[in-house]
User: What shape does this take?
Amino acid sequence: MSNIGIRILLVSVFAPLALAPDAIAQPRRNPPKPAPGAPSQPKPTPAASEAEQAIRKAADDYAKAFNARDFDAIGKQWTDMAELHQDNGATLRGREAIVDIIRKASAHRPKAAISIKVESVDMLGAGAARVKGTLVLKDDGEIGVWATRFSSLRVLEGGQWRLADSRETAISTASIDEMAWLVGSWSAESPMGKVTVSYEKALGDRGLVGKISVKPAEGPAMEVLEVIQVRDGEIRTWVFDSTGLSGEGYWEHDGARFNRTIHGVTEDGRPASSVIVLTRVSPETALWHPIERIRGDVRMPDLPSIKLTKSK
Assistant: This one.
């Protein structure tokens, strides 16, 4: 699967879990002080305060319903014709479609649990409110933490504050800890020769340094040096190899499959790119599969997948 495929997978699986996503919530500013003698701002009415409490409780109940896999309760939180606008540009329309994809997401990540923080509730009338906040998903370390900002329109329907419209923006929350399982020494026998891979913590435990060597039956070994560090919420990587190629890119993953995408140049200035698909089979084994290799304008064949075994 390409890096694009992983990105789409993550968005399509987790985006629907948001309570009601939207554009990033804007920071609140202190209102200007009123001029002397000017009337003060009206205080929230008791009815508005009760409505806000009910809306915040509905958000808590939504998280509890998902964590309990109570899809009937989740469905009751949406109106019949609700719309969910996902971060990837897709829109789901109707309660059934929304609950269906949430159900599928839950099956894909059975250990996932969510928490919802409501940051603001703005009453738009007696029966409508704009709600903004964040939703965080955790999956027992399998995928680290995934989060989104949301803005939702809740309407009072049948005595319940239901979601009528929701929009989201994903929040980058990548951590170097997501790659910590690589630390150690790995090896494999392959048609290309003896493969050895090692990673160690570096940069004050804020990064990893990897060394990869492929030793053919005859001739010199092919060596690669890699530096991994989180930058701007992404797991970034820089590579240099013994042929003179250098490049940079990023890692993406879904908890089991890790994709490293690199774009760079060869020693003679030709563009170069590749994708490594690294599948974590167990704590001691992983599959290493180089694909989508391009040198200049030539697409090179994918290399065979090899099984790496961790020795320490």
